[in-house]
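Weekly structure sync, notes
Attendees: PL (lead), two postdocs, one rotation student
Agenda item 3: pending single-chain targets
PL asked that the sequence for the first pending target be pasted directly into the notes so everyone works from the same version. It is reproduced below exactly as submitted, 131 residues in total.
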Amino acid sequence: MTFSPPNFTVWAEVPVSDLEKAVAFYNHVFNLDLQIVEIGPNPSAFFPSENDGSVSGHLYPGKPAADGSGPTVHFACPDTLEETMARVTAAGGTVTHEPIPIEFGRFFYFLDPDGNSLGVFQFHAQEQSGA
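Predicted structure, written out during the meeting:
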């Protein structure tokens, strides 16, 4: 039997060198209100999700991989790719690739200020609804 869970990815951890600066960056880029909490072995800032049990992740104090060499996590786009790309740059990140269209949406790649390789994905349905 082939393993086929509802979500193969169940959690994403993004290591950052300065948690407070990273929280400010991600709050700006994604229009969030991340808060640093003391849960578990490290302080963390948890990405929001619609309900308990949803796939999500968090920022934590750690050692990021060398610029762009770690795994790439893709985040949901809060509005349009172009608006999000502008906020990435304004907040000190680097857009490394313009939007790439695929069958069910578009995405772009960027590096956060710690050099973490990340993506932002927008489904076609989001483009049509403006969200």
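Discussion points:
- DSSP finds three helices and eight strands in the chain.
- The chain has one domain: 11-129.
Action: rotation student to compare against the earlier draft before next sync.
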